[in-house]
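Hi Y.,

Following your request, here is the sequence exactly as I used it, all 290 residues.
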Amino acid sequence: MTGRPANDASIVAAASNWERLALDSGLPRLEARVLLERASGRTREWLVAHGDEPADPAAASAFAELARRRRAGEPIAYLTGTREFLGRRFEVSPEVLIPRPETELLVQKALERAPHAAQVLDLGTGSGAIAVSLACERGDLRVTATDRSTGALAVARRNAQHLAADALARARLRFCAGSWWAAIDPGERFDLVVSNPPYVAADDAHLASGDLRFEPRAALAAGADGLDALREIVAGAPRHLQPGGWLLLEHGHQQGEALRALLAAAGLRDVETLADAAGLARATVGRMPE
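Below is the corresponding structure, written out as C-alpha coordinates. Let me know if you'd prefer a different format.
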Protein backbone atom coordinates (compact mmCIF):
# COMPACT_ATOMS: atom_id res chain seq x y z
CA MET A 1 0.00 0.00 0.00
CA THR A 2 1.07 3.58 -0.54
CA GLY A 3 -0.06 6.91 0.82
CA ARG A 4 -0.09 8.17 4.38
CA PRO A 5 -1.84 6.16 7.11
CA ALA A 6 -5.39 7.24 7.70
CA ASN A 7 -7.81 7.23 10.61
CA ASP A 8 -11.24 6.13 9.43
CA ALA A 9 -13.18 8.57 11.58
CA SER A 10 -11.00 11.43 10.41
CA ILE A 11 -11.55 10.44 6.79
CA VAL A 12 -15.29 10.85 7.16
CA ALA A 13 -15.07 14.01 9.28
CA ALA A 14 -12.62 15.74 6.98
CA ALA A 15 -14.24 14.66 3.72
CA SER A 16 -15.27 18.05 2.40
CA ASN A 17 -15.46 16.59 -1.12
CA TRP A 18 -15.10 13.39 -3.11
CA GLU A 19 -11.52 14.09 -4.15
CA ARG A 20 -10.37 14.70 -0.57
CA LEU A 21 -12.03 11.45 0.49
CA ALA A 22 -9.82 9.50 -1.92
CA LEU A 23 -6.65 11.45 -1.13
CA ASP A 24 -6.97 10.90 2.63
CA SER A 25 -7.66 7.17 2.39
CA GLY A 26 -4.05 6.01 2.58
CA LEU A 27 -4.56 3.96 -0.61
CA PRO A 28 -3.04 4.18 -4.08
CA ARG A 29 -5.10 6.56 -6.17
CA LEU A 30 -6.50 3.91 -8.54
CA GLU A 31 -7.57 1.63 -5.68
CA ALA A 32 -9.20 4.55 -3.90
CA ARG A 33 -11.12 5.45 -7.05
CA VAL A 34 -12.40 1.90 -7.50
CA LEU A 35 -13.59 1.66 -3.90
CA LEU A 36 -15.12 5.12 -4.03
CA GLU A 37 -17.15 4.02 -7.06
CA ARG A 38 -18.36 1.02 -5.07
CA ALA A 39 -19.24 3.01 -1.95
CA SER A 40 -20.94 5.89 -3.75
CA GLY A 41 -22.66 4.04 -6.57
CA ARG A 42 -21.25 6.68 -8.94
CA THR A 43 -19.23 6.11 -12.08
CA ARG A 44 -15.57 7.02 -12.30
CA GLU A 45 -16.40 9.73 -14.82
CA TRP A 46 -18.96 11.28 -12.48
CA LEU A 47 -16.52 11.29 -9.56
CA VAL A 48 -13.86 13.00 -11.66
CA ALA A 49 -16.30 15.62 -12.93
CA HIS A 50 -17.75 16.27 -9.47
CA GLY A 51 -14.66 15.72 -7.35
CA ASP A 52 -14.87 19.13 -5.69
CA GLU A 53 -18.49 18.67 -4.62
CA PRO A 54 -19.44 17.73 -1.01
CA ALA A 55 -19.29 14.00 -0.40
CA ASP A 56 -22.39 12.18 0.78
CA PRO A 57 -21.88 11.22 4.48
CA ALA A 58 -23.26 7.69 4.04
CA ALA A 59 -21.00 7.06 1.06
CA ALA A 60 -18.04 8.53 2.95
CA SER A 61 -18.66 6.17 5.85
CA ALA A 62 -19.00 3.16 3.54
CA PHE A 63 -15.82 4.14 1.73
CA ALA A 64 -13.90 4.51 5.00
CA GLU A 65 -14.82 0.92 5.91
CA LEU A 66 -13.77 -0.39 2.50
CA ALA A 67 -10.49 1.55 2.73
CA ARG A 68 -9.82 0.07 6.19
CA ARG A 69 -10.33 -3.45 4.88
CA ARG A 70 -8.13 -2.80 1.86
CA ARG A 71 -5.33 -1.43 4.01
CA ALA A 72 -5.54 -4.70 5.95
CA GLY A 73 -4.85 -6.50 2.67
CA GLU A 74 -8.29 -7.71 1.62
CA PRO A 75 -8.43 -8.14 -2.18
CA ILE A 76 -10.08 -5.41 -4.23
CA ALA A 77 -12.16 -8.07 -5.99
CA TYR A 78 -13.78 -9.18 -2.74
CA LEU A 79 -14.40 -5.59 -1.68
CA THR A 80 -16.12 -4.70 -4.94
CA GLY A 81 -17.65 -8.15 -5.43
CA THR A 82 -16.54 -8.38 -9.07
CA ARG A 83 -13.59 -9.26 -11.31
CA GLU A 84 -13.27 -8.98 -15.07
CA PHE A 85 -12.39 -12.12 -17.02
CA LEU A 86 -12.17 -12.22 -20.82
CA GLY A 87 -14.08 -8.98 -21.08
CA ARG A 88 -16.97 -10.05 -18.83
CA ARG A 89 -17.58 -8.94 -15.26
CA PHE A 90 -17.98 -11.88 -12.92
CA GLU A 91 -19.33 -11.86 -9.40
CA VAL A 92 -16.77 -13.07 -6.86
CA SER A 93 -16.86 -13.64 -3.12
CA PRO A 94 -14.63 -15.29 -0.49
CA GLU A 95 -16.37 -18.55 -1.50
CA VAL A 96 -14.39 -18.63 -4.75
CA LEU A 97 -10.91 -18.09 -6.11
CA ILE A 98 -10.48 -14.71 -7.80
CA PRO A 99 -10.26 -15.27 -11.60
CA ARG A 100 -6.84 -14.35 -12.94
CA PRO A 101 -5.66 -13.31 -16.41
CA GLU A 102 -3.41 -16.39 -16.69
CA THR A 103 -6.48 -18.63 -16.73
CA GLU A 104 -7.71 -16.95 -19.91
CA LEU A 105 -5.07 -19.09 -21.69
CA LEU A 106 -6.99 -22.21 -20.64
CA VAL A 107 -10.23 -20.90 -22.16
CA GLN A 108 -8.56 -19.83 -25.39
CA LYS A 109 -6.87 -23.22 -25.87
CA ALA A 110 -10.09 -25.05 -25.03
CA LEU A 111 -11.95 -23.06 -27.68
CA GLU A 112 -9.28 -23.97 -30.24
CA ARG A 113 -9.50 -27.69 -29.47
CA ALA A 114 -13.20 -28.24 -28.85
CA PRO A 115 -14.90 -29.82 -31.90
CA HIS A 116 -18.29 -28.57 -33.08
CA ALA A 117 -21.12 -29.39 -30.64
CA ALA A 118 -18.58 -30.73 -28.14
CA GLN A 119 -19.51 -31.96 -24.69
CA VAL A 120 -17.22 -30.00 -22.35
CA LEU A 121 -16.52 -30.53 -18.63
CA ASP A 122 -15.09 -27.88 -16.28
CA LEU A 123 -13.92 -29.57 -13.08
CA GLY A 124 -13.82 -27.31 -10.00
CA THR A 125 -15.55 -24.36 -11.65
CA GLY A 126 -15.36 -21.91 -8.71
CA SER A 127 -16.87 -18.63 -9.91
CA GLY A 128 -17.79 -20.29 -13.20
CA ALA A 129 -15.37 -18.07 -15.13
CA ILE A 130 -14.16 -20.88 -17.40
CA ALA A 131 -17.48 -22.65 -17.96
CA VAL A 132 -19.52 -19.49 -18.48
CA SER A 133 -16.91 -18.02 -20.82
CA LEU A 134 -16.90 -21.18 -22.94
CA ALA A 135 -20.70 -21.21 -23.13
CA CYS A 136 -20.73 -17.54 -24.13
CA GLU A 137 -17.99 -17.81 -26.73
CA ARG A 138 -19.33 -20.92 -28.48
CA GLY A 139 -23.06 -21.38 -28.87
CA ASP A 140 -22.57 -24.97 -30.06
CA LEU A 141 -20.89 -26.24 -26.89
CA ARG A 142 -22.67 -28.14 -24.13
CA VAL A 143 -20.86 -27.35 -20.90
CA THR A 144 -21.00 -29.12 -17.54
CA ALA A 145 -19.42 -27.37 -14.55
CA THR A 146 -18.73 -29.04 -11.21
CA ASP A 147 -17.59 -28.02 -7.75
CA ARG A 148 -17.66 -29.63 -4.33
CA SER A 149 -18.38 -26.26 -2.68
CA THR A 150 -22.07 -25.39 -2.59
CA GLY A 151 -21.11 -21.76 -1.94
CA ALA A 152 -18.96 -21.69 -5.06
CA LEU A 153 -21.72 -23.29 -7.15
CA ALA A 154 -24.16 -20.61 -5.97
CA VAL A 155 -21.76 -17.90 -7.20
CA ALA A 156 -21.22 -19.75 -10.49
CA ARG A 157 -24.95 -20.11 -11.08
CA ARG A 158 -25.53 -16.41 -10.49
CA ASN A 159 -22.79 -15.59 -12.98
CA ALA A 160 -24.40 -17.93 -15.48
CA GLN A 161 -27.81 -16.32 -14.96
CA HIS A 162 -26.30 -12.89 -15.51
CA LEU A 163 -23.92 -13.65 -18.36
CA ALA A 164 -25.18 -16.82 -20.05
CA ALA A 165 -28.93 -16.91 -19.46
CA ASP A 166 -29.58 -18.31 -22.94
CA ALA A 167 -27.18 -21.20 -22.37
CA LEU A 168 -28.98 -22.05 -19.13
CA ALA A 169 -32.39 -21.80 -20.74
CA ARG A 170 -31.34 -24.12 -23.58
CA ALA A 171 -29.64 -26.55 -21.17
CA ARG A 172 -26.27 -25.93 -22.83
CA LEU A 173 -24.83 -25.14 -19.41
CA ARG A 174 -25.42 -27.17 -16.27
CA PHE A 175 -23.92 -27.38 -12.79
CA CYS A 176 -23.22 -30.47 -10.70
CA ALA A 177 -22.11 -30.74 -7.08
CA GLY A 178 -19.32 -33.11 -6.09
CA SER A 179 -15.59 -33.63 -5.83
CA TRP A 180 -13.90 -33.96 -9.21
CA TRP A 181 -15.15 -37.02 -11.14
CA ALA A 182 -17.63 -37.97 -8.40
CA ALA A 183 -19.83 -35.05 -9.50
CA ILE A 184 -20.78 -36.72 -12.79
CA ASP A 185 -22.27 -40.06 -13.77
CA PRO A 186 -19.73 -42.91 -14.07
CA GLY A 187 -20.56 -43.50 -17.72
CA GLU A 188 -20.42 -39.87 -18.89
CA ARG A 189 -17.78 -39.04 -21.49
CA PHE A 190 -16.66 -35.69 -22.82
CA ASP A 191 -14.91 -34.34 -25.89
CA LEU A 192 -12.92 -31.92 -23.76
CA VAL A 193 -12.19 -31.62 -20.03
CA VAL A 194 -10.70 -28.46 -18.57
CA SER A 195 -9.72 -27.59 -15.02
CA ASN A 196 -7.93 -24.98 -12.97
CA PRO A 197 -7.58 -27.03 -9.77
CA PRO A 198 -5.65 -26.23 -6.59
CA TYR A 199 -1.95 -26.74 -7.28
CA VAL A 200 -0.03 -24.95 -4.51
CA ALA A 201 1.96 -27.00 -1.99
CA ALA A 202 0.30 -26.99 1.43
CA ASP A 203 3.35 -25.46 3.13
CA ASP A 204 4.03 -22.83 0.46
CA ALA A 205 4.83 -19.51 2.15
CA HIS A 206 2.85 -17.61 -0.49
CA LEU A 207 -0.39 -18.90 1.04
CA ALA A 208 0.21 -16.56 3.98
CA SER A 209 0.80 -13.44 1.89
CA GLY A 210 -1.06 -11.08 -0.43
CA ASP A 211 -4.50 -11.93 -1.76
CA LEU A 212 -3.98 -15.63 -1.11
CA ARG A 213 -4.51 -15.06 2.63
CA PHE A 214 -8.16 -14.28 1.93
CA GLU A 215 -8.96 -16.83 -0.78
CA PRO A 216 -10.42 -20.28 0.01
CA ARG A 217 -7.52 -22.54 0.90
CA ALA A 218 -9.26 -25.58 -0.58
CA ALA A 219 -9.13 -23.85 -3.98
CA LEU A 220 -5.40 -23.20 -3.66
CA ALA A 221 -3.52 -25.96 -1.83
CA ALA A 222 -3.33 -29.63 -2.82
CA GLY A 223 -1.02 -31.76 -0.74
CA ALA A 224 2.67 -31.72 0.03
CA ASP A 225 3.75 -31.05 -3.56
CA GLY A 226 0.61 -29.33 -4.83
CA LEU A 227 -0.17 -32.16 -7.25
CA ASP A 228 -2.83 -34.15 -5.36
CA ALA A 229 -5.83 -32.72 -7.24
CA LEU A 230 -4.03 -32.87 -10.59
CA ARG A 231 -3.16 -36.55 -10.01
CA GLU A 232 -6.81 -37.37 -9.26
CA ILE A 233 -8.03 -35.55 -12.34
CA VAL A 234 -5.49 -37.19 -14.65
CA ALA A 235 -6.17 -40.64 -13.18
CA GLY A 236 -9.89 -40.39 -13.96
CA ALA A 237 -9.56 -38.76 -17.37
CA PRO A 238 -9.27 -41.95 -19.50
CA ARG A 239 -12.64 -43.17 -18.17
CA HIS A 240 -14.40 -39.91 -19.06
CA LEU A 241 -12.76 -38.72 -22.28
CA GLN A 242 -14.09 -39.65 -25.69
CA PRO A 243 -11.54 -41.14 -28.12
CA GLY A 244 -9.59 -38.14 -29.37
CA GLY A 245 -10.85 -36.03 -26.46
CA TRP A 246 -8.65 -33.36 -24.88
CA LEU A 247 -7.62 -32.76 -21.27
CA LEU A 248 -6.41 -29.21 -20.43
CA LEU A 249 -5.02 -28.43 -16.99
CA GLU A 250 -3.70 -25.24 -15.43
CA HIS A 251 -0.77 -25.62 -13.03
CA GLY A 252 2.16 -23.84 -11.40
CA HIS A 253 4.99 -22.66 -13.62
CA GLN A 254 7.39 -25.25 -12.19
CA GLN A 255 5.03 -28.21 -12.56
CA GLY A 256 5.05 -28.65 -16.33
CA GLU A 257 7.46 -31.58 -16.36
CA ALA A 258 5.50 -33.43 -13.66
CA LEU A 259 2.23 -32.87 -15.52
CA ARG A 260 3.62 -34.10 -18.83
CA ALA A 261 4.76 -37.28 -17.09
CA LEU A 262 1.35 -37.80 -15.49
CA LEU A 263 -0.52 -37.37 -18.76
CA ALA A 264 1.84 -39.65 -20.65
CA ALA A 265 1.55 -42.33 -17.96
CA ALA A 266 -2.24 -42.15 -18.25
CA GLY A 267 -1.97 -42.96 -21.97
CA LEU A 268 -2.63 -39.49 -23.36
CA ARG A 269 -0.86 -38.36 -26.51
CA ASP A 270 0.11 -35.03 -28.08
CA VAL A 271 1.13 -33.90 -24.60
CA GLU A 272 2.59 -30.40 -24.38
CA THR A 273 2.98 -27.56 -21.91
CA LEU A 274 1.79 -24.09 -22.94
CA ALA A 275 3.15 -20.73 -21.80
CA ASP A 276 1.06 -17.79 -20.65
CA ALA A 277 1.48 -14.17 -21.75
CA ALA A 278 4.38 -13.78 -19.30
CA GLY A 279 6.22 -16.71 -20.87
CA LEU A 280 5.65 -18.99 -17.85
CA ALA A 281 4.59 -22.61 -18.18
CA ARG A 282 0.91 -22.40 -17.26
CA ALA A 283 -1.10 -25.27 -18.77
CA THR A 284 -0.46 -28.80 -19.95
CA VAL A 285 -2.68 -30.57 -22.48
CA GLY A 286 -3.02 -34.10 -23.78
CA ARG A 287 -5.33 -36.11 -25.99
CA MET A 288 -6.87 -39.56 -25.72
CA PRO A 289 -5.90 -41.90 -28.55
CA GLU A 290 -8.52 -42.17 -31.32
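Residues 8-72 form one domain.

Thanks again,
Q.
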